[in-house]
Write a structure and sequence with these properties.
Blueprint lengths: L10 H10 L7 H10 L28 E10 L6 E9 L5 E7 L4 H15 L5 E4 L3 H4 L48
Parallel strand pairs: 1-4
Antiparallel strand pairs: 1-2, 2-3
Length: about 180
């Protein structure tokens, strides 16, 4: 089982090839037992050895060297109204260098916030880091031209069931109430 020609084959295929060659050594389960005893019961194929890579790390040794920023959704005053809160943080001092709240998320607003923050601080950071959301990764995201989908809350629902109102089960409608009949003995 340790010959070069069998190095990447499972025991069942080794057993079949040996049998085709007219040699019977043992059963397939015995082959598995032998491999297990020798500590060779893992993956038999050659595995690619990928070099380990270091995780990139942003390091700031003074204020205004590295800014990071993010966008989060905040609930508005009514249902289905959302605001987008943009924040830029200096990772050295954890100072909020810039922030804004907008009705919609857009790359233009993000660019404008970064520009205003740099102008207000008077120092251009070496790195501006983002998490990679759509408006942060694409240069300019165009709004969708598809018609809006109807909201689920717009469908009137019967509170007694999970079905939309006005659609009850046709087999249960207009059925006389059941009466207990005589029991068979």
């Amino acid at each position: 089982m340790n010959r070069d020609e069998y190095a990447e084959l499972p025991p069942a295929q080794i057993w079949a090839r040996e049998l085709d060659a007219g040699r019977y050594h043992c059963s397939v389960s015995t082959m598995y037992r032998i491999l297990r005893e020798k500590g060779q019961n893992g993956e038999r194929r050659r595995q690619a050895a990928h070099p380990t890579s270091a995780v990139p790390e942003l390091v700031a040794t003074a204020p205004s060297q590295v800014f990071t920023w993010d966008i989060t959704k905040a609930a508005g005053p009514a249902k289905s109204i959302w605001y987008h809160a943009y924040v830029i943080i200096d990772i050295f001092s954890r100072y909020i260098a810039g922030h804004t709240v907008e009705r919609a998320e857009s790359a233009l607003q993000a660019e404008e916030l970064v520009r205003e923050t740099i102008t207000r601080n008077g120092i251009v950071p070496q790195t501006v880091h983002s998490a990679g959301a759509p408006s942060r990764s694409s240069p300019r995201r165009r709004p969708s031209r598809d018609p809006p989908r109807p909201r689920r809350s717009a469908v009137r629902r019967d509170p007694r069931s999970a079905r939309p109102a006005g659609r009850s089960c046709p087999s249960s409608r207009n059925r006389p109430p059941s009466r207990p009949g005589p029991r068979a003995a």
